[in-house]
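Subject: sequence -> structure tokens, single chain

Hey, anyone have a minute? Need the predicted structure for the following. Not urgent.
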Amino acid sequence: MDLSPHQLDIVESDLKSSIFLSGPAGTGKTFTGVSRLHYLVNNGIPGNTILLLFPQRTLSSIYQDAINSTAFQGGSLPIIATFGGLSRRAIELYWPLIAADSGFSNPDKPPVFLTLESTLFFMSELIDPLIEDKGYFSSVTIQRNRLFSQILDNLNKAAVNGFPHTDISDRLQSSWIGDPAQISIFQDAQSAANLFREYCYQHNLLDYSLQVELFVKHLSSNTLIKDQIRKQYKHLIYDNLEEDVPVSHDFIRDLLPFLESALLIYDCDAGYRSFLGASPSGGQKLSSLVSTHVDFTDSYTMSPVLKHFNSLLVSSLKGRELLKGDLKQEILNQVSVNFHPYYPQMIGWVAQQIKILIENGTSPHDIIVLAPFLNDSLRFLLSDELAKHQISSTSHRPSRALRDEPATHCLLTLAALAHPDWSIRPSIHELSHALMQTIQDLDLTRSNLLAKYALQNTTKHLYLIDFSNYPSEIQSRITFMIGNRYQDLIDWIRDYSNSPPQPLDHYLIRLFGEVLSQPGYGFHNDFNKGQITEKIIESIHNFRLSAGDVLKLNNAEMGSKYYRMVKTGILANQYPKSWTRRPKDAVYLTPAYTFLLSNTPSDYQFWLDVGSRGWYERIFQPLTNPHVLHRDWETGLPWRDTEEVAYNLQNLGRLSSGLIHRCRKGIIFCLTNTDERGFEQKGLLIQSLNKVFNRVRSEDQ
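Reply:
Had a minute. Here:
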């Protein structure tokens, strides 16, 4: 891709220039940023003086690819970071300077950096007794892991917006105008947050919120440390800054006067991470601190027809009059709304249309299927229908936890069998599904037979019986090929059980390498199961190094604790690496926001359930409100239905416009009479689409 004159002006601007570059998605802003990086290093700027800052690591992939390419000429590597990453690096480096003054009970000991999983684990250990013994959250009917996540989210919001965590309840209460009983829930959430924070100070535990808080309070305010940061970073490229949090904008505001050059890249009408604390308004304010402002308006992705359609849809959502245009037939050729009475019919039709697109030369990689939520049943229906046409598909759902994967439960069941001292006896159902995942070509019927007879050993130590001890007629039904694979598996488990227990992650590494990945077993040449195994091993490793060390658990206790916490839904969450491993020859099935945050274009988009309210309504969160806990919200103002509706409309406008800006050739909207839960589809999106298409079709009449 060649640079336009406007892009070239920015890329080759003075090495001491500061530029605020704004524009909608698809106008070449990130490509300009990558080209500017090449220009800096090609003109002798040391890579390690260049800070590449992003709101989340996944948005740095294009820059990372550029650095890894042979065209990159830098003698040293630029620093790719998020604000959270900068916080952690600084704390690791300057811990001796801040530990005592920060109030930690053991300042002479190193800190323990918690992952999301270990954070939720410690929170559950502290809050479960409050729930069971003191009646905390008695009126809240959500799963424990969601409850803990919302308490953690409150702490994170306080940290990234720069207010004390002790103010959480007061802020939530000041905006609440509903049932007075809700006040006690906010108070319980505050007490739980305070208890967790005190525990962190007692044991040198640093979750994300405390890392940010320490960096903001103790590091950025320390003159010596600030001088060191200013000496290290001389050039800045800050991309997608509208998705970042207020304290990150504060950090850059203080750093800008000491930089030799800066390129700030702002995506107009974005802010998709607002529920995570993103502050588009704070990012926009940084424009007043630079000397040059540039707006990109020409899209390299969206066609003129889709651009006109986008303006019509946004106007409809905002209740404005739809302007007359001259692209009637072109819009109808590139955009359509398709109705089907029932869900299976819609899915079958979508698969058929994708097949036609691929036969006409479209790459599967350039076809995206979007939905407000992508649950298990929808993902299965879509992937199964596409498979019938020999079309590969892949999906990524941040809400789908690692613990929900069948391969995860298989690995944990095999771990329980190899560790009888855990006192965990898997059921026939669990063993049956584990064997079906483990042994290649084993169907459900034979796996049930295998599991039923395998567990007939009633001794204290759970050893599966040998296949040779099965009744002969059962052996024949299962087949000796399957039986031999089963026997090799239990022989391996038996040998392992007779030796001292190893750390659980070490056990799974051995099990995968020596048995499961071998020919004849279900993980052999299965890329997806291999990925899941890698993530589970990483999860256990992180848990062992944080929670295991703090609680002084031995290998057996640590493994047993991990198993039980996964089963209760606390551990084994998703991992960021899965964002970056999208196959090149597969149709992408994903929630709409997930696709937006991957920041990639597509040729064709299928929007499912466009009548659903899930396109704009936020998930019910009884313990928090991300908008009230934001710096932009004035404490004391009530959060009413008026504000909720206004937020929903703004959200839907940003979402719709962001998706359209990332589409090159066509959008296919799909809906049915009712959604999967049986609710009638009359949401704001389909209402606005109807207005647009009624206007387009009436122009020639």
